[in-house]
Amino acid sequence: MNVKADKMRYQTNRLAHSLVLLGLAISIVALFSIIIPTTVVPDFSIAVEILVNIVLMLLTFLAAEKCKIYSLNWAIALFVIAGIHIARIFYVPTKLLIANMLSAGQFSLIVGYLVVSAGLLVLGGIITIQRHHVLTKHLKEIGE
User: 38, 45, 82, 101: least surrounded by Cβ within 10 Å?
Assistant: First the structure.
């Protein structure tokens, strides 16, 4: 009997959960880095960015909670959420850079935040998928 896999039945996936929550926090920092500079003039695209970020925050938190219990579907959903974070780079931050509302340094910082956030989400998803497979295999072996 694999004791480590058996313990997974009763212990949560804390590492993946923590990584996803850290990714969530960094994406919030990225959002505020986009909307706080005084040179940024609020418009419809900024409003859309805020709304998209609110939805992503809710989905990311839900995914973190589901990954805590080794949910395969939500681990895969983290890859989609990470892809959306990468795509966000090419919408508002790029538009603000072209309009000279953000400096190259601010833009680079925002890109860094979004890439790190997406990376943490992907890492959390990979860990959850691996642990899900270990737990599923173990449960089949013991007949549950």
Answer: 38
Tokens matching residue 23: 């990714």
Contact 53, 27 (CB under 8 A): yes
Instruction: Give the Cα separation of 51 and 103 in Å (integer).
Output: 24
Output the CA–CA distances (angstroms, integers) from residue 54 to 50, 57, 98, 124, in the order listed.
Answer: 6, 5, 25, 20
Overall pTM surpassing 0.90 (yes/no): yes
Three-state SS for the chain is: CCHHHHHCCCCCCHHHHHHHHHHHHHHHHHHHHHHCCCCCCCCHHHHHHHHHHHHHHHHHHHHHHHHCCCCHHHHHHHHHHHHHHHHHCCCHHHHHHHCCCCCHHHHHHHHHHHHHHHHHHHHHHHHHHHHHHHHHHHHHHHCC
Look up residue 142 and give its two tokens.
Answer: 């013991």
Q: Kindly report the number of other CB atoms within 10 A of residue 19's CB atom.
A: 24
Read off the amino acid at residue 142.
I
* CA nearest neighbour of 20 among 73, 79, 72: 79
